[in-house]
């Protein structure tokens, strides 16, 4: 188990989110409060349709809550202007999805360089960082390969490296191995845990896999719109 450093990278306080469908209001999240520290990896295990993607989108400043607050590294961020939220996403938050969403016309190295270039890193520094991260994931020999020439596991490794490119404080992952076969998923998840623990960031990882969840530091679930810790 990783040692939490005491720095809170994500703090949700009384977060609520609902959607209106016809005459019905669906309360997806009800007064969610949650804290994640640097050096801590937490599993979010919940069935589809219970609001876990909504929770991740709010935590990642991709959606706004109807009520409550979202703090990223101690800063209230949920009510900021869109440009300020985008800046925090770029510098402080890394995202990994079930599908890799790599840009097919760019090499593995270039896919990892792109978020750094957007963050105004020099091309030289971005290239060095991309090479370093891809080497951590055992892809040092695949730097110049296009995504279409990589296996599913390799593509997802590149996507994880891309999420870590700007040295975020917070990693959010939504079923990061859900599109892989069981054997490949286990290998990629091993590498994800190893690298994330090595960086000391905080990670909230949604998964349906109870075995993978059991290897994280804590497990939480959503039940009737409430967050419950095992």
Automatic annotation (TrEMBL):
* Entry superkingdom: Bacteria
Q: Name one GO cellular component term.
A: plasma membrane
Q: Which SUPFAM superfamilies match?
A: P-loop containing nucleoside triphosphate hydrolases
Keyword match Chaperone:
no
What GO terms describe the biological role, i.e. biological process, of this protein?
lipoprotein localization to outer membrane; protein localization to outer membrane
Q: Could you tell me which CDD domains the record lists for this protein?
A: ABC_MJ0796_LolCDE_FtsE
Q: Return the SMART domains for the record.
A: AAA
The record's keywords, sorted A to Z, are:
ATP-binding, Cell inner membrane, Cell membrane, Lipoprotein, Membrane, Nucleotide-binding, Transport
Against InterPro entries, the record matches this protein to: AAA+_ATPase (IPR003593), ABC_transporter-like_ATP-bd (IPR003439), ABC_transporter-like_CS (IPR017871), ABC_transpr_LolD-like (IPR015854), MacB-like_ATP-bd (IPR017911), P-loop_NTPase (IPR027417)
What PROSITE patterns does the database record attribute to this sequence? ABC_TRANSPORTER_1, ABC_TRANSPORTER_2
Cite the GO molecular-function annotations of the record. Answer: ATP binding; ATP hydrolysis activity; transmembrane transporter activity
Write down the Pfam families for this protein, in alphabetical order: ABC_tran (PF00005)
**Residue span(s) of domain ABC transporter:** 10-230
Q: Which family does it belong to?
A: Belongs to the ABC transporter superfamily. Macrolide exporter (TC 3.A.1.122) family.
Descriptive protein name = Lipoprotein-releasing system ATP-binding protein LolD
Please name the source species.
Acetobacter oeni
- This chain is encoded by the gene named lolD
